[in-house]
Design a protein that fits this description.
- By secondary structure, the protein is α/β, with parallel strands linked by helices.
- The protein has a single domain (2-258), classed as Ribonuclease Z/Hydroxyacylglutathione hydrolase-like (Metallo-beta-lactamase, Chain A, 4-Layer Sandwich).
- It has helices at residues 44-54, 100-107, 175-184, 213-223, 239-252; strands spanning 2-5, 26-31, 34-38, 59-63, 87-93, 123-129, 135-137, 140-146, 154-160, 163-168, 190-194, 227-231, 256-258.
- Strand 2 and strand 3 (34-38) form a beta hairpin.
- Helix 3 (175-184) packs across helix 4.
- The protein binds zinc ion (2 copies).
- One zinc ion binds next to loops.
- Residues 66, 68, 149, 153, 170, 209 line the site of one zinc ion.
Amino acid sequence: MTFYGVRGSIPVPGADTQVFGGNTPCLCVQAEEALFLFDCGTGCIPLGRELLAKRSHHEIHILISHTHLDHIQGLPLFEPLYKKDYSIHLYGEDRCGLTLRQQLDRMMSPPLWPVGTEAFLANVHYHTLRAGQPFSIGGCAFETMRSHHPDECTLYRMTCGGKSLVYALDFEYDTQSSAALTAFAKDCDLLVYDAFYDDRAYPARQGFGHSTWQHGLQLSQACRAKRTAFAHLHPSRTDAELSAVQAEIARQDTRCFLAQERRELIL
Ligand SMILES: [Zn+2]
Ligand SMILES: [Zn+2]
């Protein structure tokens, strides 16, 4: 699995984001010959080009956590969607009375964007999920839970070949939500956790729907995750600042680290 985008809110290209990366969330997981994407932030744009160049994986499963722009803004530029020989499955919940496709069409409609989802040439299938209901794709099992975040965000637990990954971005901790996520992520091989803030920035942003890496360390230990990657990093954080955070995290718990764009992990 490889992170293609680890930033929250907005993409931040530039000289200060070369090491950790500037794209918004996209995590690519290869399992049992199938390809899964968690979210379609701007990180999915270079990934799409790579997939076309390699001509690999003509069936792609895309699991959307929610449709805040940073999690879907790469989708209109994900090139496999415009190729007839690709089958693309999009999974997500209804929100605000809109199906996933209608939510995407809100972003992809004039005057905000010139074309809608009808422009996709791939064989696109939309699958409606409901938080709390499990499902499976091929040999991979998925569980879902409602995040503590505005506008109904979905957290995923994927289990495949005896390994499990929990994707928990856009999650704010409090006593109740932390207990629920601790149970949901129990003994997972990798927890991907929201570390948009740190303990200094969080108090002024309480209720905005995000967490801190300090709380992530506690939650990681409570759920006994074998490894924990902190992602949805704040767009204002430079490589130098994040490197210092990384060193502090490593000092406190060597099983935890900041997610880095293009970093490959094998579970
Ligand atoms: Zn977000
Ligand atoms: Zn969000």
